[in-house]
Amino acid sequence: MSAVADMKSRYPAYFRPRYGRRALVISLVVAMVALYFGAFLTFDVPWNRIGPGFFQLIWFVELMFPPDPGGHLVTYLNALGETLAIAWLGTLTGALFALPLGLMAARNIIPSPWLRFPFKRLFDGVRGIDTLIWALIWINVVGLGPFAGVLAIATSDFGALGKLFAEIIESADPREAEGVRASGGRGLSEIRFGVLPQVLPVIAGQILYFIESNTRSATIIGVVGAGGIGLHLSEQIRVLEWRQVSFLILLILISVAAIDFVSSKLRAGMAGRKAASE
Amino acid sequence: MPSAVVRLPDRQLDALKSAYAQAALAKRLRTAAIVAVALALIALSFIQAEIDPKTFFAKIGGFFSYFDRMATLESGARVWTDPAEWFWSFKRNLRLIGVTVLMAYVGTLTGAIAGFGLSFLASPNLTHNRWTVFFVKRGLEFCRTVPGIVFALMFVVAFGLGALPGVLAIAIHTTGALGKQFFETTENIDMRPVEGLRSVGASWSQTVRFAALPQVLASFASFALLRFEINVREATVLGFVGAGGIGQDLMEDIRKFYYSDTSAILVLIIAVVIAIDLSAQQLRRLLMGAERGR
């Protein structure tokens, strides 16, 4: 104990309680808790339904076993295929449009901030709107069905990938482009030989990652009628066919896990090749 | 300075040239193979989803005229000429988007607390029972993989329409997503402070409080902030299935072709989302700075 007292007398600054910091932390926590409980007042929570609701949920879960396609196996597998097709086509379309515009938003390609600004804001605006909202809008344009889903995923990916591509391109090593310029290349050949070879593997990895996460988005896009397995899922929940619901959820879990596995293998392969070539 | 470019004898040059051609050919073949596989998958996808690319070119004009109509009031004037008419339901929308953000807040905080508790049970360096670790990890994976809107659909059936099912759906999905990021962080902490505290006889809770928490708290807070940003976007669409927030009104406006009302809500959503993103980014930068400065 005396050692502690000794240390305290020698380094008082380290042992002095920091009241200011403590007050800040405590008031922050109090404010967060107050906001948390205050928020429930705005939610119009039906307090009398919470108890019965929980029992109902437990009952639903009991009804889910065993999972059973209910004779619609072919329909469901077909819808699953449609979901995967939507994710694949949507991501590629989004990436196709995002790449040139991502170049336009990158500092090392377009030095003028006035030219870059509109592209950056365009990406921010598109990204701020959820995929399901885009799905509703595209349904109004091309009608119900998987095509609206593809376009919805393409649009929201365009925003996310455009911003990401711009950041990746900005982080490219400028010396390679300078090398191309020094040996007489200019303009497009600088981008083609000095920038793109550096960034394409990273971009390909990101596209793979987006295909993976879009498989998840594509499973729910059917909830608003834009194709895929989500349509069946929301229908079966609404008509309380819980065994088919659990079968569909199982189908989604398995296919998402499979896509995750393939894509992580591919990405690891690409990263390995890149590391080996450096 | 005179420079002499060394020219190799033809025999050596030919050997190098053919080696280069071979290497280039191998690379081109691999690229061609990847492109062929991708094209085959694209073709397959077109068939599977029954998409006719011609529809795209026939209807793409509709997409842009959709935005044109969204920028036009009933009277035919542009929306920005009469903001009062454009945002006629501004008060209601503002209240609804407030509820949406609060749903995201409550859901994120609930999920973060649950994920925080579970993450310690899922890290093998703090919990030694292998079965606990296994089942907690699988449970988190389940919460993460099932889309939030599916939970929302089920909760709406159980609890009725309103914000509560939405909050619960966000909370469950957040538990899964944050729980994973949290236990990945906890798994990789520096174990030396932990061992140091254990060696002087600290209890388990003291060890977690003084050795583990200080290492992970800043990254936990940063992950939670990022998740909050994502959840605000998610909360805007939960209303599509009746789970509260601005989504219900938005869906009705889109389905009933109330163009200027749709754009009024969309503008509001984008503004709020960007404002939250920017402020959360600043906060995250502060947190990361605090972590590095320590």
Report on the architecture of this protein:
- The complex is a heterodimer of chains A (278) and B (294).
- By secondary structure, chain A is mainly α.
- Chain A contains twelve helices and no strands.
- Chain B has 294 residues and is mostly helical.
- Chain B contains eleven helices and no strands.
- In chain B, helix 2 crosses helix 11 and helix 4 (90-122) packs antiparallel against helix 9 (204-238).
- The longest helix of chain B has 39 residues, at 10-48.
- The interface between A and B is large, with 63 and 58 residues.
Q: Quick summary of this structure?
A:
With 278 residues, chain A is mostly helical. Chain A is built from twelve helices and no strands.
| Shape verdict of chain A | flat
Radius of gyration of chain A: 27 Å
Query: Mean pLDDT across all residues of chain A, rounded?
Result: 84
Distance between the termini of chain B: 54 Å
Summarize the SSE layout with pairings.
The complex is a heterodimer of chains A (278) and B (294).
Chain A (H helix, E strand, L loop, with lengths): L1 H9 L1 H4 L3 H24 L4 H17 L9 H32 L8 H16 L2 H12 L3 H25 L3 H9 L5 H33 L9 H9 L3 H36 L1
Helix pairs in contact in A: 5-8, 5-10, 6-8, 7-8, 8-10, 9-10, 10-12, 11-12
Chain B lengths: L9 H39 L4 H18 L12 H4 L3 H33 L7 H16 L2 H12 L3 H25 L3 H9 L4 H35 L8 H9 L3 H35 L1
Features:
heterodimer, A: 278 residues, mainly alpha, 12 helices, 81% helix, B: 294 residues, 80% helix, flat
